[in-house]
Amino acid sequence: MPFHIETYNHQNRIGVLIEFSCEDAYALKTAEFLKFAHELSLHIAASHDSDLPLIIQPFFRDGKKTVGDQFSEICRVLGVRVSVPRYECYANS
After folding, report:
1. Mean per-residue pLDDT for 49-68?
2. Between 87 and which of 18, 64, 65, 81 could a Cys-Cys bridge form, CB atoms 3.0 to 4.6 Å apart?
């Protein structure tokens, strides 16, 4: 299954690593997907101390939507299923 690795580093204090998988390699190269991947990495960095599962967390850009809502939207836009098998957030205390 095609995959994409997204990384984010915030001032060398917070690092995010996300693995995305998708049914279509082309979808992982679109501007819409790349924007979504970056926004999700920012969300994880901003909420790295949250105890909530990622999918139900309020999205950091719009608290009326959840991360799950954002996933539903990108899957609708791309026309394929996108998932995150694993992710990690590293933070200096």
Report:
1. 93
2. 18
CATH fit for domain 3-91, picks 2.40.50.140, 3.30.479.20, 3.40.50.2000, 1.25.40.10: 3.30.479.20
Tens digit of each residue's pLDDT (9 = 90 or more) over 8-54: 999 999 999 999 999 999 999 999 999 999 999 999 999 988 889 99
Distance between CA atoms of 93 and 78, rounded to whole angstroms?
Answer: 38
Check: CB of residue 18 under 8 Å from CB of residue 91.
no
The answer on pLDDT for 93 being more than 80 is no
* CA dihedral for 41, 42, 44, 49, sign (positive or negative): positive
Alpha-carbon distance of 39 to 92, in angstroms, equals 21
Domain ranges in the chain? Answer: 3-91
SS3 of residue 60 by DSSP? coil
